[in-house]
Each structure stands twice: as structure tokens, then as C-alpha cells.
Fold:
Amino acid sequence: MIHSAPPLPIPVFLLSGFLGSGKTTLLNRVLKAPEFALTAVVINEFGEIGLDHLIVARGHDNVVLLEAGCLCCTIADSLHETLGDLYARRVQGDVPPFTRVIVETTGLADPAPLLNTLLGHRLVTDHYRLEQAVVTVDAQHAVTALDAHPEVAQQIAVADRLVVTKRDLVADVPELDATLARLNPAAEIVDARDTDAALAAFAPGERHRVVRWTTRAVRARGASRHDASIRADSFVLPAAVSWAGIAAWWRLASESFGARLLRCKGIVQIRDSGEIVFLQGVARVFHAPERLSGWPDADHRSRLVCITRGVESAQMRATLAAFDLEAGTEPWAVALPKPGQRTAP
Structure:
């Protein structure tokens, strides 16, 4: 008997960005592209993002058909229920087939809860996979908005890809570039002025991308007065780690810092098996490690990047000692420095 392979998970792109940063323009551009004809868009409310000119027919309940064969639906009760329902309709043939999903947030939304749903809810992960978190950044107003609205820094910090809009309205943008590099040095940057910017924003990306420079390099690039409490720290681990060490490290970091851990990513080698594993956590949630077929790039070092709010680099670095703990050892055996306390480099 020949068994067919299970269907591949459908890639999902999370689109976020502050009010007026160009989310609507970017989404409209990509939905007009023939390459994105088989796209489902999940939004909060139809009226928020101005898709009326793209609507060609009403579908079932909260689903409408768009130009170029796309379909769009509003979030009903919760994101996982909406995505689960959408997949069921796809299987039953009630909606046109789609090969990718774009989930659009409101401009004031904290994307962390949605990221955790996409990364960890069984109803979602059985059929979908998070491809990229895409965030639009208004070059004209972002630097000022960072001072007034903490959501801006939070959206930038958790992004996999940043789409910078309105650069043509700003004569000098080095301060913005330095701020983006400090808040999220691992993110890919797309210039919205490029002809293929919309396609680049939603193209498949390096899902296991982890920043390659050291903590010192991140600090050197990050001179900025804006939301100085958010920082990115990158570490290279001296050796392979154990599963017990991974569990101890995450427990120590998440219980010590909680929601101040905006997003952590890591690629590590398991000591006993030699497996290469991708780690990811958002806020207090640590998602199931993903086994990779090998190193995703030429850098074969175990490494970790953590983007935090109000956590000093020395405190984050001190948690790394938990990777060396033996199974059964409480992570509190690792002493973390108090804020402002000097430690050996």
C-alpha cells in the first residue's frame, strides 16, 4: 500500500506596524500581484485596511473574495478558531484553495500573543507554520513615535522582517537605521521604495535566522536615546548543550524576566545526539524546539539572540550558565546579578 505524504503546513505571515506606517498600502500591493493569487488574508475588521476596491464577491459568513483569486476573512472569536475554520472550509471546498495566509494586526496591537498562537496553538500548528513576522516602519515618524508609543518598539523588536516606508520623505535616516539595528539586529530590512518591495516583504525567508554578531557589536551599533530599555543581546555558546540544560535555561530566563523577554531565538547543537535544534520563545512562552536537518548556514556555533525590555546584558548573560546544569538541578542554582551590579566579562 502506498501512503501519501501528509500535506505541508501552510506558511503564515504576520503583518504588523504602527498606525500610518503603510500596512494597508503594502498589503494592497501584494494582493494585486499575480504571484499572490492564492492568498488568504485574515484581518480584524474589513473597514480598517481599505480593501473595498479589491472585493469582487461576498462569500460565506465573514469571508469575501478579492481580486486575483485571493480571499479575506475577519477574525471571528479568536485567531486559532478563525484559522482552524478557514482550513476546514478549504478542505471541504467551501472556499477557494490558498497556499499562504497573511494575518494583519491593528496598528496598536502587541503582536506577541498572535505570535504565540501561530507558533504554539495545536489547532494552528497542525496545518500552518509561521513563515515571517513582517512589520512596517514609518521612516518619517518612527523615531518620534518610539518616544510616545511603546507599541512601536515592541513591534519592531519581535519582527523577522522590517519594511521601511516613506524614506523619500526623510533627508537623513542614520538615526532610524541605528535604532532599528539596536532594537532588532537580526531582522531583514526591506525598502518600500523598491519595485519588488511587496513581493520581498512576503517572500519565504530564513525562518531559522539568528543574528551572527556578538553582544559587544550590538551595543556598538545601538547608540540611540529612543526606548533605551529595549536591547538585543547575542551570545555564542562555548559548547553543545543538553535537553536538560535547555529546559533549565528557559525556566530561569522566563521566570526571572517574564514578559520582559520580548523574543528569543537560538540554534544549538545537542550534546549527546549531535542534533541541530532551533529554539524560540516569545514573552513567557517557550515553544517546542524544532529539529533541523543540519546547520542552516556556514556558522556551526550554538548561538542565541534575546530581545528584551528592561533586562541588562549582564543579567541575560548570566542565565547562560543554566545550559550546563545537570538534569534534576534547580535552575535557581544560577545566581543572577542585580540590576546595575558589575560582573566579570
Notes: The chain has two domains: 10-201, 215-333. Residues 243-257 form the longest helix (15 residues). The mean pLDDT is 82.
